[in-house]
Amino acid sequence: MDMKVLQNLSYGLYTIGTLKYGRKVGCVVNTVFQVSADPALICISMNKDNFTHDCIKEEGRFSVSILSEDTDPAIIRAFGFQSSEKNDKYDGFKYDYVDKMPVMVQDISGYLICEVVSFTDAATHSLILAKVTNSGFVGKHKPMTYDYYHKVIKGKAPKNAPTYVEEEVKKEEAPKAEGKVSYYCDVCGYVYEGDITKEPDDYKCPLCHMDKSHFVKVEEEPVEENVSYYCDVCGYVYEGDITKEPDDYVCPLCGVDKSHFIKSEEKSVAKEEVKKEEPKTEDAGVSYYCDVCGYVYEGDITKEPDDYVCPLCAVDKSHFIKVEKEEAVKEEEEPKTEDAGVSYYCDVCGYVYEGDITKEPDDYECPLCHVDKSHFIKQ
């Protein structure tokens, strides 16, 4: 039986908070689901060995903080690979109390305050049925899926997670060394820069507190110089050999698989050298192109519902411009601007900002690939 099939089930990522004699405790779980709407009931799955498990039993209440793709991965490591029995997992992170329950408040999608209805035995875990007594949004953040956690953050499942599958860490999955000595923790992935053998015997991982026997030396591998690939859909440049990525690797910008990546012919290809094609259309057809990312919609986009969004960059349909039959859309190698105007282009995805970007606030982000404004170059 191939247990990896279970990894195709869908999950999220959440911190569960409660109290122990007035002291805040918590852990990470990946299984929270709604059972009914009226009354609002949810169920969570939690390992019986978790310190938080018995604390919830005693307290009778708990909070659920819905983690987002913007959540600091350090929160996941702290809540997933340490025990609240000996550690204050909330230390160093922003939190608040809602109805006297601890809730994370930085870069999360929302929270739930719950009252326990029942505990159901499920082998190594308990299914905790609870009534939602309060809830709220915390900003507009996209909830993190377990798939995102594994593929983008490169996170591992804690041993107490219901989805944990014991397996050896493959060499190709280990961090790569670049001319220096380093070790990584085989439990949480923390990287120690330097020679860990010189640390005292009681040294522990600062994230998950495992002893140094869990640290594996990162073997140095030869790196092919100046190899890069670019995505033929959005122009994103992957620096390195993309063939070493797993088969399910996707472009972090537009989400297409790695079959869309083309090796750059030159030994050194600057990101701004990747040609960006403007949409073209045949005289016989009607089409529209997105003025943000260049995606071409074949057909009459006005017939789409008002909430239609570009499948590539997710802007609404007001950004789509009809391609006129007599209009010859030119191919450009780099964003260009008139001498009389000022413009900047993003060195990651090629998006052109018309105007003086220095006047934007410091937290301005590219609307296409979301990098900060330090990536914009004046033309």
Automatic annotation (TrEMBL):
Needed co-factor(s): Fe(3+)
Record-given protein name: High molecular weight rubredoxin
Gene source species: Peptacetobacter hiranonis (strain DSM 13275 / JCM 10541 / KCTC 15199 / TO-931) (Clostridium hiranonis)
Domain Rubredoxin-like as annotated: residue spans: 180-218, 226-264, 285-323, 341-379
PROSITE patterns per UniProt: RUBREDOXIN_LIKE (PS50903)
Highest taxon above the source species: Bacteria
Pfam families: Flavin_Reduct, RUBY_RBDX
Lineage per the UniProt record: Bacteria, Bacillati, Bacillota, Clostridia, Peptostreptococcales
GO molecular function terms attached to this record: FMN binding; iron ion binding; oxidoreductase activity, acting on the CH-NH group of donors, NAD or NADP as acceptor
